[in-house]
Amino acid sequence: MRERTGVGRIGVVAATASGRTAAETLRAAWPDEVRVLTADKAADALREAWRTCDAIVSFLAVGATVRVLAPLLGHKTTDPAVVCVDESMAFAVAVLGGHHGANLLAHRLTGVLGCRPVVTTASDQSNVTPLDSYGADLGFTVHNPELLAHVGAAVLSGEPVWIDGADHWPLPPLPPNVSPDAGDAGHHILITDNAEYDCMGHDCRWFDGALVYRPRSLVVGVGSARGVSAEEVGTLVDQALAADMLAPESVRCLATVDLKADEDGILQAAAARGWEVVTYPAETLAAVVVPNPSEVVRAEVGTPSVAEAAALHGARAHGRDAALMVEKRKSANATAAVARLRPRGRLAIIGLGPGARDLLTPRAITALQRASVVVGLDQYLDQVRDLIRPGTRVIASGLGQEEERARTAVAEASAGRAVALVGSGDAGVYAMASPALEFAGSDIDVEGVPGITAAVAAAGVLGAPLGHDHAYISLSDLHTPWEAIERRVTAAAEGDFTVCLYNPRSRARDWQLPKALEILAAHRPPETPVGYVRNAARPDQAVTLTTLADLDPARIDMFTVVIVGSSRSRAVAGRFVTPRGYRWA
After folding, report:
1. Hey, what's the torsion of the CAs at 290, 296, 301, 306, to 10 degrees?
2. pLDDT at residue 487 above 80?
3. Three-state secondary structure call for residue 387
4. Which residue in 311, 337, 451, 583 has a CA-CA distance of 20 to 30 Å to 553?
């Protein structure tokens, strides 16, 4: 294994004045990541970058870069990602390690250098989940990576591919030709922690030639006497795994009581197998129900079980439940047990922004494509259907069904799936995050993916109306009593906040906006600027800047955001500005 230092570093190599200027631009933009390497020969700098960095940006021709690096190639999972940028800064070409950082780096470079990313990996061009990173964020490893290209080609070609074991994990989607019902297919994918696949009554030849993923599904619990040897612990653990044909590759960690945190035999046995050691207090383990408790152990360490309890508790800490696969096994000075975790589902709550594709964040796109189930309002889903990967189950519903969408998304995640719940703007601002989280329990993992709100999008085209303290208030009294809304408007008016009004006026609710403006006018001069934007950041965007005295509420509808300035706000050169109030030196 080659030496790897500078973890997280991007090595940048250039040979011309133009390339060196671009390299310094990258260093200024990403100072914590970029290391500019120099040498008398650019080839030597490239080799140094390969040895010491996790990714390389080469301001050299692709051919020249490949000729230098070709003799150094090992495996794409361990080699640095490499991107080449041409002399004119027109293109950023992902050359090596596309799914291991190069494709993402090529896209990142566009934001700094203005170049165009060139990505040639077939799965990216087909918007299909790549098999070489399938389940990687869950800790999956590929047991037989030599089959990735063969099975991956079948997936992309639309050939039938049988998959087994995926239902138990919150995995990203694969296209419809990859199915658990394709038992007669010539290509197979297995997700299993069995060292030898359990054919469950099927023809065991299915295991032959299958692409096998090892999930991190097992926790090994260990207890021991003081001074136990690493050999004894390691041998016992290996025997425990073999007893149920469990794969060491699927072990997430070794768990024990915190009294053994410094036990060299346990630490060395785990280190030899590449496993993390986690420890738990005796009182925590004492609360775990196990099949083989021991009062002798309780008297000695404060818990009736170490191995079984640590395995179960460790597995539950990483999942929503656990099952003991191997009960306590003993050697002269150690005990071992193995538990399998039941993984938690995932819920990503995604804000799609105000509607313009270039205001949809890269993180939102990644989260959307990571989900195998996408739930949302039909008109919002229509905006991003081209980004949703083949094989994704889409659950769309109409206006007024917010609670149903929230409950559906949580239920799907609770069943162990990878779910995206999408909404416009930011999901946490008058959107789906709060109703979903009211229903979500501890059995799922939740990620909030920020989005650009309608207020921020509107403010951007009006000028800087939100430059100082401001308040967001929804005027919809469908679910909030008007008395509460009126108190909030009054408080914001008395506090001299700039006020952003959501849901300002509809056909059925035409009096709330004039009433809110009347309250604000009692605390603002009539020339206070008011801006309103209809369909902010969309092709039919309409922007109006007026004053509190001249605003016509009849021109406002539910597609409009209204921003009323504070007493300090003013119009400057046709732009809405709320001063920061700084005293400039």
Report:
1. -30
2. yes
3. coil
4. 451
CA distance 279 to 259: 8
Q: What is the pLDDT of residue 3?
A: 38
- Measure the CA–CA gap between 477 and 488, rounded to whole angstroms: 13
Task: Return the bridge partners of 280, or none.
Answer: 257
Distance CA 170, CA 527 (A): 55
Closest CA to 562 of 573, 548, 579, 575: 548
Encode burial over 19-41: b for 16+ CB neighbours within 10 A, e otherwise: bbebbeebeeeeeebbbbbeeee
> Which of 124, 121, 131 has the alpha carbon at shortest distance from 155?
131
Mean pLDDT of the chain: 91
Q: How many CB atoms lie within 10 A of CB 360?
A: 21
296-335 pLDDT, tens digit per residue, is 999 999 999 999 999 999 999 999 999 999 999 999 999 9
Compute CA distances 568 → 179, 218, 465, 575, whole Å.
62, 61, 10, 14
Please give the backbone phi and psi of residue 258, each rounded to the nearest 5 degrees, phi first: -65, -20
Which of 558, 562, 354 is CA-nearest to residue 457? 354
Report how far Cα 148 is from the mean position of its chain's Cα atoms: 24
Q: Three-state DSSP class for 437?
A: helix
Strands (DSSP E) contained in 437-523 are 444-449, 463-464, 470-474, 498-502
For 398-425, b/e burial (b = at least 16 CB within 10 A) is eeeebeebbbbbbebbbebbbbbbbbbb
Q: Alpha-carbon distance 313 to 468, whole Å?
A: 49
Separation CA 391–CA 412 (nearest Å): 16
At residue 6 the predicted structure's pLDDT band, cuts being 50, 70 and 90, is very low
Nearest Cα residue to 351 out of 372, 376, 386, 387: 376
d(CA 410, CA 402) in angstroms, rounded, equals: 12
pTM: 0.79
pLDDT of residue 8: 67
Question: In this predicted model, what pLDDT tens digit does every residue of 146-185 receive, in sequence order?
Answer: 888 889 889 988 999 999 999 889 999 999 999 998 777 7
Q: Hey, which bits of 205-268 come out as E strands?
A: 211-214, 218-224, 251-257
Q: 575 has which bridge partners?
A: 572
Q: How many residues does the chain have?
A: 585
Give yes or no for a contact between 375 and 405, defined as CB atoms under 8 angstroms apart: yes
| Residue 522 Cα distances to 145, 382, 486, 550, 555, angstroms | 71, 43, 13, 15, 22
Q: Please give the span between the terminal C-alpha atoms of the chain, in angstroms, as a whole number.
A: 57
Chain position carrying tokens 């025997």: 239
pLDDT digits (tens, 9 = 90+) for 420-433: 999 999 999 988 99
Q: Where are the beta strands (DSSP E) in 249-372?
A: 251-257, 276-280, 321-330, 334-342, 345-351
What per-residue confidence (pLDDT) applies to 106?
87
The residues, any chain, with a CB within 8 Å of residue 297's CB and separated by 6 or more, are 223, 303, 304, 305, 306
> How many helices and strands, by DSSP H and E, does the chain display?
18, 29
Mapped onto helix, strand or coil, the DSSP state of residue 256 is strand
* Most confidently modeled range among 19-28, 175-184, 218-227: 218-227
